[in-house]
Amino acid sequence: MTKGKSINLKGKNGQRDAAKQWEKITGIKAKNGAQSGVKGGMDIESDINARLEVKRCETFYVYKAMDQADEDCSKNEVPVVMHRANYRPWVVCIKLKDIPKFVKAYNDAKLSE
User: Fold this and answer.
1) CATH architecture group of domain 3-111
2) Contact 46, 64 (CB under 8 A)
3) Which of 17, 19, 40, 66 is least surrounded by CB atoms within 10 angstroms?
4) Does position 61 have pLDDT exceeding 70, yes or no?
C-alpha cells in the first residue's frame, strides 16, 4: 500500500471511529460523512448543529484544523474539531466563545430525539 493510500485509510477509519465515539459519549446519532474529503464536505454527519472536523494524526495543528472547520461551517453551525493520535484518547476542540452556542446545539439535538 502506498503512503498516500495508507494516510487516506487512517483518515477514513478515524472518521468512523470518531463518529462511533461521538454517538457513544453524547448519545447523538453520528456517521461518517458521505462527502468527506471533498472541500466543504462533512467528516461526520450528526443530528447536532455543528461541523465536526476529524483529525486522526500524530502532528496536530489546532488553529489550522479550526480554520478548516470554520471555513466549512454554515452560519448556524458550531465548528468542532475532534483529534486523536495513536494510543491516545479522542479530544474535542471548541472555541471558548462558541461554548454557549455548542451547549444550545447539544440540548436541541437531545430534545429532538
Assistant:
1) 3-Layer(aba) Sandwich (3.40)
2) no
3) 40
4) yes
